[in-house]
User: Which sequence fits this backbone?
């Protein structure tokens, strides 16, 4: 079976200061609490993480073990903060490779725009669910992540 290529871009606006959202996007505990698919996350060092995720697409459910690497973290820019990450992992009969980027722009003192993008290549059993179903499931998970991240108590300001 040939691999399934996925590509997504989006923008989120969250009512919180950019510095707070930036810190929490880099905090594995906040990210894990916001991503329903993550079973476990373990910091290897400041830029590498071991992640366990359970992904279900239609009748296909797979547990993946991934290594996530933060790349090109730029947090010194006065106006924008950005980072890229890569992730590679495998599960029973499945392999996945992901690259993602986020860029935060402060719109007002308590309002931040997050521009994000993600590309993935999925092979094997998970890809057998089909491109349309895989894209639909991924879009749903992405939307759930951003809703949960925005609502996470660590991102709430008084």
Assistant:
């Amino acid at each position: 079976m040939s691999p399934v290529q996925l590509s997504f871009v989006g923008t989120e606006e969250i009512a919180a200061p950019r510095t707070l959202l930036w810190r929490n996007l880099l905090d594995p505990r906040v990210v894990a609490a916001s991503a329903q698919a993550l079973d476990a996350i373990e910091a290897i060092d400041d830029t590498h993480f071991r992640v366990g995720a359970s992904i279900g697409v239609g009748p296909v459910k797979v547990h993946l073990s991934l290594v996530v690497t933060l790349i090109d973290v730029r947090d010194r820019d006065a106006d924008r903060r950005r980072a890229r990450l890569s992730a590679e992992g495998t599960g029973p009969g499945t392999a996945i490779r992901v690259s993602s980027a986020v860029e935060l722009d402060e719109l007002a003192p308590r309002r931040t725009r997050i521009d994000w993008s993600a590309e993935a290549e999925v092979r094997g059993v998970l890809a057998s669910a089909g491109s349309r179903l895989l894209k639909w499931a991924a879009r749903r998970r992405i939307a759930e992540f951003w809703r949960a991240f925005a609502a996470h108590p660590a991102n709430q300001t008084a």
The chain has a mean pLDDT of 91. The chain is about 25% helix and 55% strand. Residues 4-153 form a domain with the Alpha-D-Glucose-1,6-Bisphosphate; Chain A, domain 4 fold (CATH 3.30.530.20).
